[in-house]
Write a structure and sequence with these properties.
Length: about 450
């Protein structure tokens, strides 16, 4: 009987020891993790691609041994949070609060809509947590106004803040260069007429004034401006008005789902004006299917399509396609870059402390699958923004043809002197990525304007 009681006590002791070891192991594991929160509209490809890009980076880093901090290895854990930012600003704010205060992440990356990111920056600033933006065009102006409060924000992508001079908005106008050349050489239209179709939104508000000024210097006439909503369900009125105005080109700024409606109705109505600019929806791999192929010959902008930009481009695209079955939108490589940029700063400084990491992040010089990323310094009109240029981070212009996105810009031609004068960078005549094709005017545009001016 005594032996049985002794045996029971031994077993109980072993169980307690095992539970203590298990608990210790779990705590040690949690302590050896760096938690990165990914925030975005996860019901949409914009947010999902952000998440997948970050996850690929984390998987690669963990497979290689993790992040080293003063000789100690840390595993990267990615936490996903849907901020519903396309539908609700309060949801976007509460999502940021949850991921920072409840999930207690060490860093945040993501953000897809400017209005949401501007609100989320307040949570960032209150909690002094580093936030790497990977999808909003806004955020840097707050840093310029109050560096000490908002210095925790860095915009990995996209490369503009207000679509104005000295910012990356010039590249969207640069993508019109091949279209303007085609109108001149094929149709003899020496001074093309341009309609501005600019979405209502913080990110696009300054694009209008800037575009009017630069397009005029580029030898174009702006015939009008239309401002549809982020979630507009019809563009028929705007498109027919643009046709009546006699536009040869429709220059678009669209970040919302209305971009699908625009492409489809433009193709249905055979509007005799080339569609070009930035439509985030048009950059999605399923845009051809969503528009029943009516987006054919429409042009827009993306970061990675089917060209080789750096030594890392091909491997990243292949990894993303293998993981998701889709081609990546720009949110994916931006999130991938953000994780690696954090890794580099942490390993250089040997700390997770935000105040110590900020100077290291400001010195970032990193080449990812979408180009070289260097941030604008404190004191710049848009601090902590990604610098764009021919040998830096840059978007590409693409055109939908035969169900594929075909890159047509940069095409080895220099951009217009007016753009260089407003802060863009020369040297584009040296850039034509492997896989680039020539721009093709929509056949119905050629037919409509043949013999006309």
């Amino acid at each position: 009987m005594k032996e049985r009681r002794l045996l029971v006590k031994l077993w109980m002791g072993l169980i307690v020891i095992c539970m203590m070891l298990l608990t210790f192991g779990m705590n040690a594991s949690a302590a050896d993790e760096i938690k990165i929160g990914v925030v975005g509209p996860m019901k949409f490809a914009n947010g999902e691609h952000t998440w997948q890009g970050a996850q690929i980076a984390a998987d690669e880093i963990n497979a290689a041994g993790g992040i080293r901090v003063k000789g100690k290895k840390y595993r990267v854990e990615i936490l996903k949070t849907d901020d519903n930012s396309f539908a609700s600003m309060p949801d976007a704010v509460s999502a940021m609060e949850r991921i920072v205060t409840l999930k207690k992440v060490d860093f945040v990356i993501g953000g897809c809509r400017s209005e949401a990111v501007l609100a989320q920056q307040e949570i960032m600033a209150d909690n002094k947590i580093i936030f790497l933006g990977t999808g909003s065009a806004a955020g840097s102006l707050k840093i310029a106004k109050n560096y000490n409060r908002y210095k925790y924000f860095f915009r990995v992508a996209p490369s503009q803040d207000t679509l104005g001079p000295n910012y990356g908005g010039t590249q969207y106008v640069a993508m019109m260069e091949p279209v303007i050349r085609a109108l001149k050489t094929e149709l003899g239209i020496e001074r093309p007429r341009v309609a501005l179709l600019v979405e209502k939104g913080v990110w696009a508000d300054n694009g209008s004034a800037y575009s009017k000024d630069v397009l005029s210097k580029m030898g174009c006439d702006v015939v009008g401006e239309w401002r549809p909503g982020f979630t507009a369900t019809s563009m028929t009125a705007e498109l027919l008005a643009i046709k009546r105005a006699g536009a040869h080109i429709i220059f678009v700024y669209s970040a919302g789902p209305a971009g699908n409606i625009l492409s489809k109705q433009w193709g249905e109505l055979k509007i005799p004006a080339a569609l070009v600019g930035l439509s985030v929806a048009a950059g999605k791999p399923d845009h051809w299917k969503v528009t029943d192929g009516l987006c054919s010959f429409g042009a827009s902008s993306e970061v990675i399509v089917n060209v080789v930009k750096t030594k890392k481009t091909k491997a990243f695209v292949e990894a993303f396609v293998k993981k998701t079955g889709e081609n990546p939108m720009f949110y994916a490589p931006a999130a991938y870059d953000a994780v690696y940029i954090l890794k580099g700063a942490i390993e250089r400084t040997g700390t997770l402390n935000a105040e110590a990491l900020i100077p290291a992040l400001e010195k970032t010089d990193y080449v990812g699958p979408d180009g070289r990323i260097v941030f604008t310094p404190p004191g710049h009109p848009t601090p902590h923004g990604c610098i764009w240029g021919p040998h830096q981070y840059t978007w590409v212009g693409f055109q939908w043809r035969d169900g594929k996105r075909m890159v047509y810009w940069p095409d080895g031609h220099e951009i217009h002197p007016a753009q260089i004068a407003t802060g863009a960078v020369g040297g584009w005549d040296k850039v034509r990525f492997e896989g680039t094709t020539n721009y093709v005017l929509p056949p119905w545009v050629v037919e409509y304007w043949k013999g006309k001016k």
